[in-house]
């Protein structure tokens, strides 16, 4: 009988390909007033008289539902009024509405048009959004060179998510020649205001010595910074480092803490690992019932090792009632993913 998969053996390395994450298009909704609904009559008078700022403010009130019912249609109407008068922030928000089909049918070409109009007025957020459209070929031909130019300009004007996207482009070689050294430089710029995604990549690169000097202590630092802001993969990787004693003394209590946080956020590998820790009493009190709860969550997300361990539990009746049908079900799931031990168990059970 194959023993239960003991902690972490299969999860020390995470595929870079699974980590790509670009920051999404952003709109500018900066209106903050105590009683916005009370302003609507006076704003409407000004807006109808052609005041672009009033038109923009009305658009934002309806988009955010500030003292009124949210109405993307009305927001679009007023943003367009202001945008067609040349107000850059209205052009950016109107583009966002067109891009996401808010209050209208999605139209990436109109979105590109209005982002470009705002960017031409040196509006930083529009430059960032335009960079994303060039990067992804949305509403225009894909053009990595233009994307880079707009990201650099936006980043230099304070939109640090632009630096993050530059880092991701060079990290993966997305439209540019892959260069982890350049990627590390852009991630460092993005991380100056504690961007968790940038901190996560800096941790990953420090851990693997890829674009940065291999430094487990630095990796733990960056992962911790990202994890405390809710970055799930950083939580998971911290769990790995504490469990294996990489850059720190082995600490199963800390490992269990971070695996639990990542597991609660839905990470299947963390769910499997915390399940094993409850199974063997590592870093937490041994609790087979809790182990099974986590195995179920991981198994349902496709974790082959969780599926196998769960099948063993049902087969042996450990921590749960013995249930051959459920054991067969989970051995089948695991064997379908190529687990030969699960297949051997399954064949034996089906022969009976």
From TrEMBL:
InterPro entries membership: Sel1-like, Sel1_AlgK, TPR-like_helical_dom_sf
Pfam families the record matches: Sel1 (PF08238)
Annotated signal peptide: 1-20
Transmembrane segments: none
Keyword presence, Zinc-finger: no
Keywords: Signal
UniProt key word Ion transport: no
SMART domains cross-referenced by the UniProt entry: SEL1
Name of the protein described by the UniProt record: Sel1 repeat family protein
Originating organism: Gilliamella apicola
């Amino acid at each position: 009988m194959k023993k239960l998969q003991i902690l972490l053996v299969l999860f020390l390395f995470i595929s870079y390909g699974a980590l790509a994450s670009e920051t999404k298009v952003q709109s500018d909704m900066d209106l903050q007033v105590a009683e916005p609904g009370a302003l609507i009559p006076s704003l409407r008078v000004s807006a109808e008289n052609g005041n672009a700022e009033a038109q923009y403010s009305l658009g934002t009130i309806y988009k955010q539902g500030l003292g009124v019912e949210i109405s993307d249609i009305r927001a679009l109407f007023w943003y367009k009024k202001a945008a067609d008068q040349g107000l850059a922030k209205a052009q950016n928000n109107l583009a966002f509405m067109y891009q996401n089909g808010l209050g209208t049918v999605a139209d990436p070409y109109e979105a590109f048009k209005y982002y470009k109009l705002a960017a031409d007025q040196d509006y930083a957020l529009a430059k960032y959004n335009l960079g994303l459209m060039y990067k992804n070929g949305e509403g225009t031909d894909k053009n990595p060179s233009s994307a880079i130019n707009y990201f650099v300009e936006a980043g230099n004007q304070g939109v640090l998510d632009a630096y993050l996207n530059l880092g991701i482009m060079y990290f993966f070689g997305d439209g540019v020649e892959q260069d982890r050294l350049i990627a590390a430089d852009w991630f460092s710029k993005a991380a100056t205001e504690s961007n968790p995604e940038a901190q996560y990549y800096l941790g990953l690169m420090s851990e693997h010595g890829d674009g940065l000097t291999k430094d487990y202590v630095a990796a733990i630092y960056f992962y911790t910074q990202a994890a405390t802001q809710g970055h799930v993969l950083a939580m998971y990787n911290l769990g790995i480092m504490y469990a294996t004693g990489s850059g720190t003394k082995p600490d199963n209590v800390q490992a269990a803490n971070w695996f639990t946080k990542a597991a609660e956020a839905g990470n299947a590998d963390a769910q499997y690992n915390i399940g094993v820790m409850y199974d063997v009493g590592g870093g937490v009190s041994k609790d087979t019932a809790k182990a099974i709860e986590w195995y179920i969550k991981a198994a349902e997300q496709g974790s082959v090792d969780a599926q196998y361990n769960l099948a063993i539990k049902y087969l042996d009746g450990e921590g749960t009632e013995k249930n051959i049908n459920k054991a067969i079900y989970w051995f089948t799931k695991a064997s379908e993913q190529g687990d030969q031990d699960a297949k051997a168990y399954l064949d034996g059970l089906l022969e009976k």
